[in-house]
């Protein structure tokens, strides 16, 4: 287990070192017309460099090839990936003529969305007993008889002890 975490840490270090040139080249990619935004768990890449369309690829740590990433087609100059987990990714945009429009690094910090309008299933079961159901007359009569017998038994016991 300890060896696995050491290997994972060293892998993350290598990935960070490999991503460093991409981060330093980010202003050049911006100048070429590629911008990447991350809102929640959605990543969007926008470019004006691909007039005839193309594809975008979202590469996670450890992925180095365009084909290894999650690919999305450019629609009106934008490619969108939804449901992206938290982490650092590299976005590569390739035009239809196979020229690279640009490469950008993006950090996603997706947090779970909590709905304020959610309610418990079935609602709260309040009333007599907390989870009362519709019982018949016979059930209520039997319960009332047991309560009356307990009261009479208690009175008889208390009277008997005093004597």
Strand content: 25-35%
Shape: rod-shaped
Strand segment tally: 7
User: Which structural class should the secondary elements be placed in?
Assistant: alpha+beta
Question: Which regions are unreliable across 5 or more consecutive residues at pLDDT < 50?
Answer: 11-31
Q: Helical amount among residues, as a percent range?
A: 25-40%
| Mean residue pLDDT | 75
Order of helices and strands: HHEEEEEEEH
Q: What can be said about the biggest beta sheet? A: 4 strands, antiparallel
**Major β-sheet strand ordering:** 4-3-6-7
Q: What is the tally of helical segments?
A: 3
What is the alpha-carbon Rg in Å? 33 Å
First-to-last CA distance: 76 Å
Question: What are the main properties of this structure?
Answer:
4-stranded antiparallel β-sheet; 3-stranded antiparallel β-sheet; 34% helix; 163 residues; alpha+beta
